[in-house]
Write a sequence for this structure.
């Protein structure tokens, strides 16, 4: 059943905990395919591992803090196919550069730049998070946003097929 959150700076509700949980669960489960589609993306910090609580999931040399780019690279290294779609914009350059410089031949990670993208979605095997929020500091912590999260095999599979058709088969 989908859950919709409305976030803002004064609310205790934040989307970063949903994103963190989804990506860490994916990392623990391995395999599959994850797409992050957002016009604007910042390399937001998602995991505070200073107490070692996520050491088992984050690997042999776990970082103390983990950013979005690092989680996506860990997923790609663990066998998950990772696709990121964003605009070719100055605001996204640092994030995109970190992904590209961190990827190696063992990673199935691809960054696709599309000037017309405006959709906001993070989807993986059996789950989907979508709404008005860009994956930026303001989108996660400040702006008034609406985000729907669902554990839904059908909706996730449909989004994956549509994204593959739009950006991999074009």
């Amino acid at each position: 059943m989908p859950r919709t959150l409305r976030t803002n700076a004064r609310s205790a509700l934040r989307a970063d905990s949903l994103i963190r949980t989804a990506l860490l669960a994916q990392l623990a489960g391995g395999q599959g395919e994850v797409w992050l589609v957002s016009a604007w993306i910042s390399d937001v910090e998602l995991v505070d591992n200073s107490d070692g609580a996520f050491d088992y999931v984050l690997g042999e040399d776990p970082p103390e803090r983990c950013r979005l780019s690092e989680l996506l690279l860990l997923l790609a290294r663990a066998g998950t196919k990772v696709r990121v779609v964003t605009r070719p914009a100055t605001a996204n350059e640092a994030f995109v550069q970190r992904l590209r410089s961190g990827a190696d031949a063992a990673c199935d990670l691809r960054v696709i730049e599309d000037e017309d993208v405006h959709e906001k979605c993070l989807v993986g095997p059996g789950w989907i998070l979508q709404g008005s929020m860009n994956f930026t500091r303001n989108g996660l912590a400040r702006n008034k946003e609406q985000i729907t999260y669902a554990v839904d095999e059908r909706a996730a599979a449909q989004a994956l097929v549509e994204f593959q058709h739009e950006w991999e088969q074009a």
In short: Residues 153-167 form the longest helix (15 residues). The two ends are 33 Å apart (CA to CA). The mean pLDDT is 86. The beta strands are 3-7, 33-37, 45-48, 65-67, 81-86, 109-113, 121-124, 127-131, 145-151.
